[in-house]
Write a structure and sequence with these properties.
It contains two helices and 27 strands. Strands 19, 20, 21, 22, 23, 24, 25, 26 and 27 form a nine-stranded mixed sheet that branches. Strand 6 and strand 7 form a beta hairpin.
Length: about 350
């Protein structure tokens, strides 16, 4: 029995070894490769192609030498616009590299498509488009550009050219493409001067007239508050502010139907710190002092609350010198507040009195 068991085991192993060796083996064909399967070049550019394995010898040829040529070491020279292929051969092995040749169009300038001054509210965003001159310029790589802000506490910009207002102030937003750089000035404020970029200037060597209708841009509850008691106006919209149609601006340029708790903000730049007299030109339906008004500077009450002299007729505008205000130098937001509105105000004149 023991002899029989050994014989059977040996027979089994013999069958196993025979079956394990019974595989079809795929034939391996040698190949060559080149380090580029395609290359895009400008006219006149060169590129070195390298073939492998390195222990073989290779020959090179261009299928259209009017487009690109190649020397015996694989150095390709772009000749003119078009496409061709470079063949690398070793024995019966071949590898083709596609060559695309384009004309080089030099970038001569860049244009940021925006006004030179952009006013932006805190939290608001705006995207600045940029044009390449000429538009078909292709000599600067697509990745060779940059955006940055001089002061990121005022405004920040991302890689798409979208600028966001962060805090009040002024900064420059720059864009660079290749060797060309341009910038735009961004002014971030809560409200903006009615005439873009031009606050009212207060100085001791001149008087300044501010029309009540020329309050800041910024919209309802930001630059002004008005209950809309009149018939609206087109003056503001015609001058670039479509957000204040509820404010009645009458034919004489005055604000009409001024009601209690209404207010308007004005951007001022005080060149000379000191005390200024405010002369208000307004009309009312009755005579004698009436209504109550005050001024605020940067959100802080800066004058007493006082009435204004009545003119005795809505078509009769007179001056009242009731208010004086002390202003520090610099840029400020001046608010006119109607505690009790009884007038149609037209304009206010600021005259320097003393330091």
């Amino acid at each position: 029995m023991r002899k029989l068991f050994i014989n059977v085991s040996l027979a089994f192993l013999a069958v196993l070894f025979v079956s394990c060796d019974d595989f079809e083996r795929a034939k391996v064909y040698p190949t060559i490769t080149v380090d580029h399967s395609s290359v895009t070049l400008f006219e006149g550019d060169v590129v070195q192609l390298t073939a492998s394995p390195s222990n073989l010898s290779f020959s090179w040829k261009s299928n259209d030498e009017t487009i690109a040529t190649v020397d015996g070491n694989g150095l390709v020279t772009a000749i003119r616009q078009g496409s061709t292929s470079i063949e690398c051969e070793s024995g019966d092995m071949t590898f083709e590299t596609e060559i695309y040749v384009t004309k080089k169009v030099a970038l001569t300038d860049i244009v940021m498509k925006s006004d030179s001054l952009v006013e932006l509210a805190i939290g608001a965003t705006v995207t600045i488009p940029v044009d390449m001159i000429p538009s078909e310029a292709n000599d600067v790589p697509a990745t060779d550009f940059d955006w940055w802000s001089d002061d990121e506490s005022v405004a920040r910009v991302n890689s798409s050219g979208t600028v966001k207002g962060v805090g009040t102030g002024t900064t420059k937003i720059h864009y660079r493409k290749g060797s060309f750089t341009k910038y735009i000035i961004f002014e971030v404020q809560v409200t903006f001067p009615f005439v873009k970029g031009h606050p009212f200037i207060l100085a001791k060597d001149s008087t300044t007239v501010i029309w009540f209708r020329d309050f800041d841009r910024g919209g309802m509850n930001v630059a002004f508050y008005d209950t809309g008691g009149g018939s609206g106006n087109t003056y503001r919209a015609q001058h670039g502010d479509p957000t204040s149609s509820m404010v009645t601006i009458e034919g004489g340029g005055n604000i009409g139907y001024l009601a209690s708790s209404e207010w308007y903000i004005y951007s001022v730049s005080v060149k000379d710190a000191g005390t200024y007299k405010i002369t208000i030109n307004a009309a009312s339906g009755s005579s004698g002092p009436q209504g109550n008004y005050h001024f605020e500077v940067d959100g802080v009450k800066a004058t007493e609350t006082k009435p204004i002299q009545g003119s005795g007729g809505w078509g009769s505008f007179i001056n009242d010198d009731s208010f004086q205000i002390t202003l520090p130098a610099g840029d400020h937001k001046l608010k006119f507040f109607a505690d009790t509105g009884s007038h149609n105000p037209k304009h206010m004149t600021f005259t320097y009195i003393s330091e």
